[in-house]
Design brief:
Rossmann fold, about 25% strand, alpha/beta, seven-stranded mixed sheet, about 170 residues
């Protein structure tokens, strides 16, 4: 039996800090993001308990490359859920790395940038747990990694701004 996907479109002001955008903050609250959640690209204001960002200025517990962070945090117990809010484009990857004082390589902007994080992250979540992904597409983790989309939130920002697409997936 195919399940219906809830799709909602709202308008909100854009923000560098994704998790402070009101409809996004409300969605995270509905899914009880916090204790037992992990965030490899936390930036500022992540509600997850275990946070990482490559930028040492970010108020996170760890400051590693996202894939190295996940390799170092193989859980003894599964996480309740994860936030996946990476830079959305090669330009954003380059800017984020430069801001963090890191040299950007072809590997950092290569086609496997996202899968190097998605693959281990997908396996760290308990069955029935959630991964909430953010970006300019609704790809999320995908069926091949054992996830089904249950909700999509389109956050329009108006003008020349791209929408922020939030994809909520449940591990099956």
């Amino acid at each position: 039996m195919k399940k219906e996907i809830k799709i909602t479109r709202v308008w909100a002001m854009p923000s560098f800090s994704t998790f402070t955008i009101k409809p996004i903050a409300e969605l995270l609250k509905r899914y009880n993001v916090g204790k037992g959640w992990i965030d490899p690209f936390a930036g500022w204001h992540s509600p997850a308990e275990i946070t990482n960002d490559i930028n040492e200025k970010a108020p996170t517990k760890y400051h590693w490359e996202a894939n190295e962070f996940l390799e170092g945090h193989a859980p003894e117990i599964w996480y309740e859920g994860a936030l996946f809010d990476p830079p959305y484009s090669n330009r954003q990857i380059s800017e984020h790395y430069r801001e963090a004082g890191k040299v950007v390589t072809a590997r950092d902007t290569g086609a496997d940038f996202y899968s190097r994080v998605k693959d281990p992250l997908a396996g760290m979540i308990k069955r029935g747990g959630y991964i909430i992904s953010f970006g300019w597409n609704s790809s999320g983790m995908g069926k091949n990694r054992g996830y089904e989309i249950i909700e999509i939130l389109l956050v329009a920002h108006g003008g020349a701004h791209n929408d922020t697409i939030v994809t909520v997936e449940k591990k099956i």
